[in-house]
């Protein structure tokens, strides 16, 4: 029995085409053309190989032969020709909207003819939303697909699904086409797998200790010391998907002034927060992108690092003078701001430490704690000044999501509007023909955003998977950007 992480709880069905939320279950039922490893590299799966034309206007995929869906139907080029058009009008249409049509070269070769060059297509195809369902089962089930039945080519078959409670899977004994992310290309070692949804992290951890569940996905950092103290428990960590950061509202004073934003950013000590809040687990964040992305490899001199002396110097030059009480004042107004944060323990504790660190530059910080829904509502209305935020995404287009003028007022709650920034965004998002061009263009885009100090990067988390050693044997090295089929196929039952 496995317990899903909090971010995976609440999926109403297991239909990857029309889903807005999927859990690990989907990666066990369905295979994808391409798999992505934790280092962001791409690996063949149902596609044995692929090739992108120099102008980026077509992609050719050689498909794996001998693959069958759980219902016995064959996987071939006709499957792909049926599958891609199914995204039209779905929430996930954006994943393939650059594809104009699918050409069948032969029974096991397809070519995507593109509307425009889209080097990010390879990332999209590795998404869990790109798991390929059985055409016959999908069309027959209609809106019930993913609820009463879910048929893919993956290592597990759906036995039952109770929304908000659990999903029960059974091994696909015919499975023999695992990706190279797994040492075991065959059927899973665990023959019957129950994935439970346990919303409360403390309850899930207790179940792990007592053997009620064998594996716990998405373990919060605060539980790691307890994990290490338990002889029967162990954990594995994978690189994370995002960062914790401070979000400025550039439309709200005093953060319309770039000097104040820069001073605030330099006053934050990422190392101290990593140690105090996250028990040293994860990495300090000094830019907006996660460190495993090649787009994150910018000039280190441009990254945001703690520099208290420089922060104070900037405020002095900007006319913010310290009073006898240590609080800075300009034009008769004290440097007082509100810091918005969620009630989650790590977020709240981060806000408290930031409050103390900003006091060192003469800024008075009042913390407002709200539930996540209220925080988002405030961001949408532009009612915040500064907020502790987190995102989870392992692609450079997260910069477009949060800082493009087309996304004001939300998710671009910073309200950032700048002609040069938007020009760099347009080049990165729309004018990159190859992956190399895309990487170079996104580096320039992020460098521009960093130079305008639109955020304060704080922490890059890891993904923690805890398990009960009396029940399961887990490989030392886990691969895949989440607990994908490769990992689960490799896990063994003790004894």
Q: How would you describe what is shown here?
A:
By secondary structure, the chain is of the alpha+beta class. The chain is built from 15 helices and 24 strands. It has helices at residues 24-29, 77-83, 121-125, 135-141, 201-210, 224-229, 258-267, 270-278, 308-317, 345-359, 372-381, 398-403, 419-430, 435-451, 485-490, and strands spanning 2-3, 34-36, 42-44, 47-52, 58-63, 99-106, 109-114, 156-162, 166-171, 192-196, 215-217, 233-239, 244-248, 283-284, 321-322, 328-330, 333-334, 336-342, 364-370, 386-390, 455-460, 462-468, 472-473, 492-493. The strands form 6 sheets. Strands 8-9-10-1-11-22-12 form a 7-stranded mixed β-sheet. A 6-stranded mixed β-sheet has the order 14-21-13-20-18-19. Strand 18 (336-342), helix 10 (345-359) and strand 19 (364-370) form a beta-alpha-beta unit. The two termini are 16 Å apart. The mean pLDDT is 92.
TL;DR of this structure?
This protein is α+β, with helices and mostly antiparallel strands. 27% of the residues lie in helices and 23% in strands.
Describe the secondary-structure layout:
Elements: E1 2-3, H1 24-29, E2 34-36, E3 42-44, E4 47-52, E5 58-63, H2 77-83, E6 99-106, E7 109-114, H3 121-125, H4 135-141, E8 156-162, E9 166-171, E10 192-196, H5 201-210, E11 215-217, H6 224-229, E12 233-239, E13 244-248, H7 258-267, H8 270-278, E14 283-284, H9 308-317, E15 321-322, E16 328-330, E17 333-334, E18 336-342, H10 345-359, E19 364-370, H11 372-381, E20 386-390, H12 398-403, H13 419-430, H14 435-451, E21 455-460, E22 462-468, E23 472-473, H15 485-490, E24 492-493
Parallel strand pairs: 1-10, 1-11, 18-19, 18-20
Antiparallel strand pairs: 2-3, 4-5, 5-7, 6-7, 8-9, 9-10, 11-22, 12-22, 13-20, 13-21, 14-21, 15-16, 16-17, 23-24
Helix pairs in contact: 7-9, 13-14
